[in-house]
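Colleagues,

For the teaching module next term, I've prepared a clean inverse folding example: a structure given as tokens, and then the sequence designed for it. I'd like students to try predicting residues themselves before seeing the answer, so please don't circulate the second half yet.
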């Protein structure tokens, strides 16, 4: 990992973070989207064979495949699913919103009606890897919100099968249907629908760069949760941090892929050196050390600051997906943090805890977007309608205000809509 000062990092940070544009990638993605729009299921089957080398006979996972998957996974995995699912449900239940009404004036009722999104598409990465935890994190909040139709798309493996762990998680979480399709073509299918896959009103879930760019291009025709970038962790560590713990946590993020961003920010050069030593020692024992080394070499940074306050400022500048405060008084310094997807406090709250079992959602804003975005939650699967009810006298009381503003904007038909009711009311009053 490259060691640098805070000022050096500030100078370099403008080009290090944020979403990037790739014209060649976008051309490919747009061709895929157009193909699916025009050719539906035929395009999905053809693209799966062309891009993934997999010839599928059908797209939908059958009930027999679900049952076979559930029977093939271990009892301990079933127990882990239920435990994690319960924790996720308990946490997200606190995010539920209710419809409400108010009466600000006599004869006036205003309010907000909260309703679930009717149909949601969930993308789960797959192929070479398996992410049952993402199944739970994306589906459970949707079920709590009251979404009636939840469709999952996920890439099949080289044999045309879906991971049994993913299917078992989908059954526990409450997915309605699962389809064997991935990449930009899956996003297009969810956005526009095919003969088999229903059009969704919102698409959620992480994916590779093709998935991320496809979500960006279909946004507007359908809602999306976020445009996710590479996974990242920022650890703020003072002299009380355990270097072995910090190193292990940085390595856990680096193993995601070569683009992952592991960052350490510390006011202690001694801690930085100790963590670097631990990384060198621990990496040799890890299975994915080739990926980890590339992540550390390309994107890893150790930033040494003048003070803890400056370290916290750097963390806010980064606005990381995962922020660990491995410092003496994490709760006392929590108020200083304004930009982070998820915040882990102390030496015994490692980021993998949030990935799997703590309860808060692990679908988080990346690439600095935590400065204006939030983790996935129940609120992402709900929409709001404003409620307005005026009685006759209440409308009369506000009529002059409305007509005056409408005329100022040159919208005389708007003014007439109010005036015709006022005239009718005045006539009844005269009678």
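(Answer key — instructors only)
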């Amino acid at each position: 990992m490259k060691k640098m000062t805070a000022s050096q990092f500030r100078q370099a940070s403008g080009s290090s973070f944020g979403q990037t544009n790739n014209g060649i990638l976008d051309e490919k993605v747009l061709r895929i989207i157009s193909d699916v729009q025009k050719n539906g299921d035929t395009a999905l089957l053809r693209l799966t064979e062309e891009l993934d080398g997999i010839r599928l006979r059908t797209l939908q996972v059958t009930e027999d495949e679900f049952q076979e998957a559930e029977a093939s996974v271990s009892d301990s995995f079933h127990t882990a699913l239920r435990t994690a699912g319960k924790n996720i449900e308990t946490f997200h239940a606190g995010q539920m919103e209710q419809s409400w009404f108010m009466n600000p004036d006599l004869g006036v009722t205003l309010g907000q009606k909260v309703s679930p999104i009717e149909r949601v598409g969930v993308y789960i990465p797959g192929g070479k890897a398996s992410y049952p935890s993402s199944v739970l994190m994306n589906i459970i909040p949707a079920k709590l919100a009251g979404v009636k139709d939840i469709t999952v798309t996920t890439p099949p493996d080289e044999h045309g099968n879906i991971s049994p762990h993913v299917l078992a998680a989908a059954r526990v979480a409450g997915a309605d249907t699962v389809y064997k399709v991935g990449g930009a073509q899956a996003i297009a299918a969810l956005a526009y629908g095919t003969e088999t896959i229903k059009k969704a009103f919102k698409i959620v879930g992480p994916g590779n760069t093709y998935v991320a760019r496809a979500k960006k291009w279909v946004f507007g025709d359908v809602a999306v949760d976020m445009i996710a970038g590479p996974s990242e962790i920022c650890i703020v560590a003072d002299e009380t941090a355990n270097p072995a713990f910090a190193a292990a946590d940085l390595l856990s993020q680096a193993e995601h892929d070569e683009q992952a961003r592991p960052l350490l920010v510390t006011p202690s050069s001694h801690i930085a050196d100790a963590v670097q030593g631990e990384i060198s020692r621990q990496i040799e024992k890890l299975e994915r050390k080739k990926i980890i080394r590339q992540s550390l070499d390309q994107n890893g940074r150790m930033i040494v600051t003048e003070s803890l306050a400056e370290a916290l400022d750097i963390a806010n500048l980064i606005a990381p997906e995962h922020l660990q405060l491995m410092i003496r008084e994490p709760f006392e310094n929590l108020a200083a943090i304004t930009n982070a997807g998820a915040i882990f406090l102390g030496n015994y709250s490692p980021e993998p805890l949030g990935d799997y079992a703590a309860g808060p959602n692990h679908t988080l804003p990346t690439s600095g977007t935590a400065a204006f975005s939030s983790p996935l939650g129940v609120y992402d699967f709900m929409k709001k309608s404003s409620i307005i009810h005026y009685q006759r006298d209440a409308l009369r009381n506000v009529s002059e205000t409305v007509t005056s503003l409408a005329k100022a904007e040159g919208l005389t038909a708007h003014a007439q809509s109010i005036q015709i009711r006022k005239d009718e009311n005045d006539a009844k009053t005269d009678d």
